[in-house]
Amino acid sequence: MAAIGFVLLVALLLASSAAACDRCVHQSKVAFFSKAQALQSGACGYGSLATGFNHGRIAAAAPSIYKDGAGCGVCFQIRCDDKKICSEEGATVVVTDRNHDNATDFVLSSRAFAAMANNGMVPQLLKLGLANVQYRRVPCDYKKKNMAVRVEESSQKPHYLAIKLLYQGGQTQIEAMDVAKVGSPNWNFMVRNYGAVWDTSRVPEGALQLRFVVTAGFDGKMYWAKSVLPADWANAAIYDSGIQITDISQEGCAICDDGSWKH
User: Where do the Expansin-like EG45 domain residues begin and end (predicted)?
Assistant: First the structure.
């Protein structure tokens, strides 16, 4: 894609991405899945990898948070209102699925739900089944782990490439992505297929580089992964992007009252 076209597209994407302030404190209810398998078939497409994220503290999120897949991989701090049962810190969860239950903003893994409890109070919390909570978006911290790229099984070399993004840190959304042969200035755009999966039918030959535009501050920021996929890339393989995303995106809304984050 030509540089000017890419910049214009990104500007349009960023302009249309404004939503409710995730970083503000929200009130809702959460339930939990009794079986981990329910989250392995999540709408983000992480599959069995999902249960390995964040020590298994993962969640299905309402459509306003899932954002047609742009919310996949983002992190939220959630805590229940009953301070006799639940801790001040609560639990940090990673979004791996879409929640279709209009009664709650999140459905958590049982491990994430239990992580909200004070010491010795897990049975009492699990017995509730449904808890009143406060939640807010927080940066994802993967302890200096680089963002990774997994080649999907649906990829058909050399004509079609689908990749899944893993370990996107910070508090951002990926708004656009391009792919090119390593060393080439000729970029081809990729599109979000669903969830965390992006694809293209215009696959360059040879080793591949990627560039991403993410929300950062009140604008976008470009990341360039100069060598990600080798020339002999293979389906189901995971490759290190060599980059870490740690930016914080600022939403165009009123300043949050952090004083509401209290018991």
Answer: 41-145
